[in-house]
User: Which sequence fits this backbone?
């Protein structure tokens, strides 16, 4: 490393010279920094979705700025054609604080297992939720799903991260139902679990739920790839023609 250059500036990404004319107008020079590479990728996705026109909306520009200023170990995700910003350390600290505070308001008179969760949307908003138990145990609702529902009710459609606090010494990951619900809005979201101890575990939802049920499964049925099974008693009897 030459004097005066930081480690970030020393990291270079080589972009293939052979590119389409449309990509050539959006991508930078053949040798560029990682931050410039990510910005070029964002602009290329926008131009790809809108033909040759590059459409940069205020919300997408905000995601790009967050992407450049973010700090943290998590990787950049592309979800539903959008770039999901990396989770900054400051955001993780806020999520942990909100999740722990929310757990104090949980309604868990039957199990005593008070859980708090906080989700981070692609727009940088944070929403918290708690588990709410019911005397009919099957009607109880987990904190993770309540937090996700809060975000959706406020207009969010993309979850970048979720942090879960449990009153245990070891971190506890979300249950299967919460993983499935989270996959609807963040198929590769960051999942952070922590408890009363010092251990903190980081997951990718794709690792916790590698093959979720999604819209692609329904599309297979709509296109005729799968047939709906009908119980024999529900089938209409065929009439025989008289000879």
Assistant:
């Amino acid at each position: 490393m030459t004097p005066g250059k930081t480690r970030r500036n020393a990291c270079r990404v080589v972009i293939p010279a052979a590119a389409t004319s449309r990509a050539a107008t959006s991508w930078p020079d053949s040798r560029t920094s990682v931050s410039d590479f990510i910005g070029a990728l964002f602009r290329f996705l926008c131009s790809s979705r809108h033909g040759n026109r590059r459409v940069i909306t205020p919300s997408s520009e905000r995601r790009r700025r967050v992407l450049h200023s973010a700090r943290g170990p998590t990787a950049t995700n592309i979800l539903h054609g959008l770039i999901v910003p990396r989770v900054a350390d400051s955001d993780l600290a806020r999520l942990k604080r909100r999740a722990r505070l929310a757990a104090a308001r949980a309604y868990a008179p039957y199990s005593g297992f008070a859980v708090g969760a906080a989700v981070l949307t692609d727009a940088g908003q944070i929403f918290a939720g708690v588990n709410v138990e019911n005397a009919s145990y099957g009607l109880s609702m987990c904190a993770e799903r309540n937090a996700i529902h809060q975000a959706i009710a406020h207009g969010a459609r993309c979850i970048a991260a979720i942090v879960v606090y449990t009153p245990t010494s070891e971190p506890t990951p979300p249950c299967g139902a919460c993983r499935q619900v989270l996959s609807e809005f963040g198929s590769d979201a960051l999942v952070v679990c922590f408890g009363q101890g010092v251990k903190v575990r980081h997951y990718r939802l794709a690792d916790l739920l590698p093959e979720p049920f999604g819209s692609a499964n329904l599309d297979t049925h709509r296109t005729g790839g799968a047939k709906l099974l009908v119980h024999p008693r529900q089938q209409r009897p065929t009439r025989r023609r008289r000879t």
